[in-house]
């Protein structure tokens, strides 16, 4: 009612446009958040806290959110784990590795507006009390940090072992806070593994894990970090018949890099074209050409990026399989063109 009355005075612009000038979080069309702090972490990483607007729901420890930023006039989306404890305003901790993360780390300022999708993910704490083992490396510590911040100060019965790998002490995210938490709470034990001096954890036998956490087989375990760590840990838990006790969070998917010659991609509805090599995904090719490509996780999990194939052949960069059925829904984030491809987007 208030809006329709307002529209009498604001036509031809929509009242939402004027409300947005007053409050950038008021858009009903796109969930947004305003940055409330930017805190430098160790080299190349920052924690960005934000106050989300309408449409956001409180996150659970371990979940992630899709964050959108505009770079050179194109909105780019990436997923980031929420590092703040459950029950507090969200924050992400971003490590600069590529285009979007570098932009977030180097250019984000208090008061900036981020585009958001609500928290999601099932990398979550168990529902009842259990001894836990967290195995993390690099920026993979972020969802686990939310779990530790949520659980350890609030639960006297918490029993958490964190084994975190970083190249050097200076590269170890949250090192000082973890040391304080471990000193204040008997239920948290932190072991750092500095790969520059100690080497990586050896998963060819259980000896390293046995030394770091002798009862690892009986703990509910979480692993997050580079693909190699996730694959090695999954194999170890599988070999020791405790695979059900391991939860894995992947930040990236291994894709073939020598997948073929690539080809021309025609984005029919957008009336745009691109030429992509055999290791460039259809999603990346579309974004680079300025096509509004639907996507979510960008790693072959969520299927938000499905687009119908109109003609041509594509290759699944995870498996090398080819697909050429007209009308088939293609996961553009993990597929590359083989020759000329027409997409219905
Ligand atoms: C569920 C989920 C949670 C995530 N949480 C975080 C988080 O808390 N903090 C964070 O910094 N990133 C996180 N990521 C990764 C993030 O979404 C981006 O992939 C990352 O920031 C790289 O994007 P970019 O545009 O900067 O690089 P791009 O230009 O898209 O890619 C550059 C290269 O970096 C590789 N890459 C992706 N992630 C990493 C990484 N963590 N370390 C090293 N190389 C990487 C990619 O495989 C690619 O080869 C998460 C991803 C997922 C799916
Ligand atoms: S964006 Fe999630 S499967 Fe492609």
TrEMBL record:
InterPro entries per record: 2Fe-2S_ferredoxin-like_sf, 2Fe-2S_ferredoxin-type, Beta-grasp_dom_sf, FAD-bd_FR_type, FNR_nucleotide-bd, MRET, OxRdtase_FAD/NAD-bd, Riboflavin_synthase-like_b-brl
CDD domains per record: fer2, FNR_iron_sulfur_binding_2
The keyword Oxidoreductase is assigned to this record: yes
Keyword Chloroplast: no
Xref: SUPFAM superfamilies: 2Fe-2S ferredoxin-like, Ferredoxin reductase-like, C-terminal NADP-linked domain, Riboflavin synthase domain-like
Keywords: 2Fe-2S, FAD, Flavoprotein, Iron, Iron-sulfur, Metal-binding, Oxidoreductase
One Pfam family recorded for the sequence: NAD_binding_1
The FAD-binding FR-type domain, residue ranges: 28-126
The 2Fe-2S ferredoxin-type domain, residue ranges: 263-345
Cofactor: FAD
Protein name: Ferredoxin reductase
